[in-house]
Amino acid sequence: MTIHFASIRARLILAFSVLLGLLLAVAAVSLQRLEVLTATTQEIVNYQARRVFMAQSMNLHAQAAAIDLLKLLQTPERDQRVPLYAAMDEEMAASAKAVHDLAQTGLAADLQSYIGQVTDLQQRYATLLQETVELLEIEGPTKARTHFEDRTHKVLNTLLFESRALETHLQQMMQSRLEQLRESATQATHLVVLLALCALVAGTGLAWAVARGIVLPLQKAVSIAKVIASGDYRQDVPNGRRDEVGALLRALRVMRDSISNREEKILRLAYIDPLTDLPNRTRFMELFDARVSNASGALMLLNVDRFAPINNALGYKVGDHLLCQVALRITRSAGESSLVARLWGDKFAIMLAGVDQLTAADKVQQILAAVRAPMTITGQRLDIDASVGVTLYPQDGTEITTLLRHVNVAMTVAKHRQDSMVFVSELDNEPDHQQLSLLGEMRDALVQGEFIIYYQPKLNLKQNKVTAVEALIRWRHPVKGLIPPMQFIPFAEQTGFIREITPWVLRQVIEDAADWRHSGISPVVSVNLSTRDLLNHGLVEDIQRLLMQSGMSAEQLCLEITESALMDEPELALRHLNELSAFGLKLSIDDYGTGQSSLAYVKTLPVDELKIDRTFVTAVDVTPRNAAIVRSTILLCRELGLSVVAEGAETAEELAWLKSNQCDFVQGYGVAKPMPLTDFIPWVQKFNHS
Ligand code: C2E
Ligand code: MG
Ligand code: MG
After folding, report:
1. Which of 417, 453, 472 to mutate to test ligand 1, by most ligand atoms within 8 A of the CB atom?
2. What CATH number corresponds to the domain at position 337?
3. Ligand 1 atom closest to the CA of 530, numbered from 1
4. 114 in a domain, yes or no?
């Protein structure tokens, strides 16, 4: 087990065990040495000192006995000597006892023999002392003193010398023991200091190693966590450690991966269209903004034609499948350098960098060709088409929101015109797309009363009288002047604001109708409805209520609907049309001929009138093809019991042609241009009475 891979717990246990071991060693050594010291001290106190004391005692008693003897020799009266004998015997006995005790203290062999010598000398001295006493008592002091000086005194001197030598020897022995003791104490001190130093060094080393093994990887983990927190998930997290730091790093890696996954999911949810896997509107706008500022290219908006009816008729599954197929076809044909996104519903945006108008047009044709290729979904063959709006940047603008708005207009115009593609630059002759900014002002305009209705007469050719009229909205803008409906109605439809405009138009028209009734005229008035209106059940109820409140008869009101409005949700539209028709309202198909429905289809609808679009009426007198279409439409309408209106007749020749071909009504500049109510009433009064 290398220290590198040992767990932090194991490393700490190891470190503290070493330190604890060293401390225990210090304590054990100290205790042992202390015990030795105590034992040695005790020995010195118990034996050495006692031996020295005994040797001294033996010496002192021998000397005291000699002094007693000298006193005896100088004491002439016998009575006075008796107590001195007793004292001398006592001293001799004490000296002998001291020697005996000393011999019992377990001395070494050399000292035992030394003691033996001293004991011999002591016995000889005791014998000589006895002889000296006997001479004193028997022969008198002179002889005794001579004996003492010749023999006893010499032995006493030898005894004193030897016993002092013994005492000195014992003292030296004690000194050497003390010396040993001091040396052992010094050694113990050194050992304890050494062990303590070792513990200190080992402790420092282990603390450093453990800290290094823990703190450095932890610091590294902290810096990795910071990098991950900053959003960089490519940050490498070291692998391989098996300790707690390794577990922390593994947890960090798991955390990094799951955050990255979660963020990817969130980004996907926020940026990717889940149906087609294409970028969504937000992502597209971001990517467009991120392109190089001075880059040029084309931005296209493709809308699948008649998607809603397909979706409704065949179900959402087929609709979804269709959108996926379209997305795939667009992506493939647009090429790798393009950016394709699904903005919403059936609208796709395509950005092509570095292309000019010609290349963009070519590309759109390629994309359309791909989209138009027949498609089979759940066994059903579908022929789909699309309309494309194209804008070029930076020529038409650089700001994505504006570009998308403009390209949406171009796409809407393409749809209306049944053109496959319309460039924003072509819109200059169309209603000024710049005025799209008016969109935001529409709500205020309604409150401020800036909308106004113009009336365009419908001339009844049979009676040569104006018996009907179409209400056409205008916006009297305080700055931009009179704005025609094509510049704001399509966008009111897109934004849903039309839900507020149509009821206002209806109220205004019903109010105006009351005015002209007072003036003695009562034409049937037509109001244009948009697709959304037709799908809004609330509007049907609104119309019924308004008519009942005003007292205007339902037959006096006609609603104009375009074919495309009927196509979006045919079933719902038909239900509402039936309700309106049952209530007595007239219904009219506007712009007939621009859509794709046949007359046979129109026959099934509860309509009363058909308005042939201006494109067929213009120059009808000189264009055989137009003439054929208009003539056959008039005939078929008669068969079906519908009245026919020719829209947009401008010239007297056109009017004459229409009259001679039994067209019922004509509406166009050739009769009158749309005009405000104040002009309309006198105009009709004058026309009908002329
Ligand atoms: P529309 O319903 O087909 O109305 C006929 C349009 O043709 C009117 O345009 C009218 O001024 C124009 N027009 C009539 N005779 C001639 C002619 O001889 N020559 C030419 N060049 N044009 C002629 P306007 O008023 O600009 O309206 C355009 C469209 O706006 C209308 O087409 C209608 O679809 C829509 N619109 C107008 N008012 C309303 C409204 O109140 N609600 C809704 N939803 N749409 C409306
Ligand atoms: Mg109309
Ligand atoms: Mg029309």
Report:
1. 472
2. 3.30.70.270
3. 44
4. yes
Nearest alpha carbon, ligand 1 atom 3: 591
State the DSSP string of 59-93: HHHHHHHHHHHHHHHT--SHHHHHHHHHHHHHHHH
523 C-alpha to ligand 1 centroid (Å): 18
Rounded distance between C-alpha atoms, residue 690 and residue 679, angstroms: 17
Residue 576 has pLDDT above 50, yes or no: yes
Q: Do 403 and 397 form a contact (C-beta atoms < 8 A)?
A: yes
Query: Quick one: tokens of 642?
Result: 């519908």
The per-residue pLDDT for 685 is 96
Domain boundaries, position 306: 281-426
- How far, in Å, CA of 143 to CA of 149, rounded? 10
Neighbours of 65 (CB within 10 A): 23
CA 279 to chain centre: 21
Number of domains within the chain: 3
How many Å lie between the centroid of ligand 2 and the Cα of residue 495? 21
Residue 682, preceding peptide bond in cis (omega within 30° of 0) = no
Nearest atom in ligand 1 to 560's CA: 2
State if residue 674 touches ligand 1 by the CB under 6 angstroms criterion: yes
Does the Cβ of 457 fall within 6 Å of ligand 1? no
What percent of the chain has pLDDT above 90? 39
| Same domain flag for 54 and 182 | yes
The answer to whether residue 649 is domain-embedded is yes
- Does ligand 1 have an atom closer than 6 angstroms to the CB of 95? no
Confidence of residue 577 (pLDDT cuts 50, 70, 90): very high
Residue nearest atom 37 of ligand 1, based on CA coordinates: 472
Residue pair 667/648 in contact (Cβ under 8 Å)? The answer is yes
648 CB within 6 A, ligand 1: yes
Say if CB 167 and CB 62 are below 8 A apart. Answer: no
Q: Is 490 in the pocket of ligand 1 (CB under 6 A)?
A: no
**Ligand 1 pocket check for 590: Cβ under 6 Å:** yes
- In sequence order, the β-bridge partners of residue 675 are 455
Q: Taking the model in full, what pTM does it have?
A: 0.50
Which CATH number do you get for residue 574?
3.20.20.450
Q: What angle do CA 413, 419, 422 make, to 5 degrees?
A: 55
Whether 432 shows a pLDDT value over 80: the answer reads no
- Residue at a domain's end among 162, 181, 206: 206
Residue 147 near residue 135, CB atoms below 8 Å: yes
Whole-angstrom CA distances from 628 to 402, 592, 601, 611, 635 are 44, 15, 20, 16, 11
CA 688 to chain centre: 76
Domain end position, chosen among 188, 206, 224: 206
Backbone angles phi, psi at 612, to 5 degrees: -75, 130
User: Are 302 and 385 contacting, i.e. CB atoms less than 8 angstroms apart?
Assistant: no
Q: Give the span between the Cα atoms of 354 and 352, in whole angstroms.
A: 7
Greatest alpha-carbon pair distance for the chain in Å reads 211
Indicate whether 436 pLDDT > 70. no
**Relative to the CA of 484, which ligand 1 atom is closest?**
26
Burial of 601 (0-12, 13-18, 19+ CB in 10 A): middle
Residue 338 has a pLDDT of 93
Rounded to the nearest whole angstrom, what is the distance from the C-alpha of residue 646 to the centroid of ligand 2?
Answer: 11
* 68 close to ligand 1 (CB < 6 Angstrom): no
What residue has token string 């409704």? Answer: 312
Which of 459, 474, 528 gets mutated to test ligand 1 (max ligand atoms within 8 A of its CB)? 528
